[in-house]
C-alpha cells in the first residue's frame, strides 16, 4: 500500500514525542504514519463562523496531519450532542442518560458527510483508510458515495451495546447498515464483536459466513478482535525517566509508611467512580485497624464539562469524597486525596509504582489501558496488586488480577483487604502473568495486526482472533479510486 490514512475525531499526533505526555495510542499511530508516509485527519478542535471545508496541513514530529474547523452548531450537535449525549451513554449501557434528539442525529450525519467531502480529494488509489471510534461510524458510507473504493477499516474503542438496548436508538438500523461500507470492523474483545453479530443476525436478518465475516444489507464485512495495548517500552522508559523517578520518590515519601491505593480515571459516569468511593468507604468501615494505615489517591481529570451529566457527577464525587474524609480523617491523615488535574505519562508511571494497590473498576469499558499501565509500572521484586472490574474489556485478558463486580461495595472492600495482605510470592506470580499479557498485546502489535488484516496480509498469532488469507482479500478487492491527492504534499516531499 502507498499510505495509511488515519481518521479520528481529534488528531492526537504529538508535536513533541519527547515531552512524555502523549498517550501510547497516539505514539503507535504516529509511528505507523511515519512508516507508511501517511496522513492523520480529523477535527482541529477549533470552531469557525462559516464552514469552509478547508483542510489545514501541519507537520507534527514527522507526521502529516490534516485539520478541519467545525461550526459551533456542528460541535454542539455532532460532538456534544450525538457523540457524547447519545452514542457514548448508550454504548456504555446508560440508557437513563441517553438523549435522543433529532437535531443531534442530523448534526452527526452532516459532520460525517463534511469530513468525507474534505478528505476524499486527498485520497490516492492505493491508500488504506483506518477510521476510529463511534464519532465516525457513517463515514465509510459517505466516502463510498463520493466514489472512494479503497480499503476502509473501522475500529471501535468503546463497548458495543446489547441488541435490546441498541434498538432504543432511533434509526439504529441505518447506523449499523452504514458500517457495512467498511471492509473490516475491529473490536477490543470477543464479547463486543459477538454483540454486534447478534444484532446483525437477529435484528437485520444477516448471516455469518464462518470466516469472521457477516453478510447483510446486500454487502459483506469482515470482523475481528484486536485487543489494544500500551506502548510497553515507551512506558518503561517514562517510568525510568528523571521525572518518573522523582515522582515515585515524592509519592513514596508522602505516603509516610502508609499503603497507597491509586485510581486514575477521566471524569466519566462509565468509570464507576462513585461506586469505587463507596466500596472504599465500606473497606474503612469493615477494617477499622486500617484507618490511618492506608489512603486512596484518586486522580480524575475533568472532561466534557459542558455536558450536564458530567457536571452532575463532578458535584456528587466532590460531595462524596468530602463526606468520607469528614467521617474518617484524623489530624495527620485523610483517607482520600481527590485530584481533578491531568498528569504526564512519566508522572503517572511514578505514581503507579509507588502504590500498593491499583483500583480499575469501570462499570463498562472498551478496554481500559490504565490497568495495563499499572502493571507495567510495578517493581518486579515487590509489585502492587491490580483490582480490575470484570466489566472492563481488559478483564478478558487479565484474569490474574483480582476481578470484582464494581456495583458491590462489599466485594470491593474484600478485594482491597485481600490485595493489601497478599503474600509477596503470590503478588510476584500474578504480576509475572499479567506483565506477560501486557507485552504480548503491545499497542504496536495491535496496530500492525489490524493494518495487516485490513490489507489482507496474514496476521500474527499474538493476541488476535482474526485470520484473513491474502487470496480472499484479492478476490474481494475493489477497483482503484480515480480520486487524486489534489495538490497536498506527501511527508516525503518535505525538505
List keywords for this structure.
disordered C terminus, six-stranded parallel beta sheet, 495 residues, Rossmann fold, 42% helix, 2 domains, alpha/beta, 17 helices, ten-stranded mixed beta sheet
Proportion of helical residues: 40-55%
CATH class of the largest domain: Alpha Beta
Overall average residue pLDDT: 89
CATH topology of the largest domain: Rossmann fold
Fourth-tier CATH superfamily name of the largest domain: Glycogen Phosphorylase B
| Measured distance between first and last alpha carbons | 23 Å
Low-pLDDT residue intervals, each spanning 5 or more residues: 17-21, 458-495
Radius of gyration: 23 Å
- Portion in beta strands: 15-25%
Q: What does it look like?
A:
By secondary structure, the chain is α/β, with parallel strands linked by helices. The protein has 2 domains: 4-229 and 442-485, 3-Layer(aba) Sandwich (Rossmann fold); 232-440, Glycogen Phosphorylase B (Rossmann fold), CATH 3.40.50. The protein is 42% helix and 17% strand. It is built from 17 helices and 16 strands. It has helices at residues 24-35, 72-91, 102-119, 139-145, 163-166, 172-178, 190-203, 232-240, 242-255, 273-286, 308-328, 345-354, 370-377, 409-421, 424-440, 443-455, 470-476; strands at residues 4-10, 39-48, 56-60, 63-71, 128-132, 152-155, 184-187, 207-208, 213-216, 219-225, 259-264, 294-299, 336-339, 357-360, 385-389, 402-404. It has a 10-stranded mixed beta sheet, with helices on both faces. Strand 1 (4-10), helix 1 (24-35) and strand 2 (39-48) form a beta-alpha-beta unit. Helix 3 (102-119) crosses helix 4 (139-145), helix 8 (232-240) crosses helix 12 (345-354) and helix 10 crosses helix 14. The protein is globular, with a radius of gyration of 23 Å. The protein starts with a strand and ends in a 19-residue tail after the last helix.
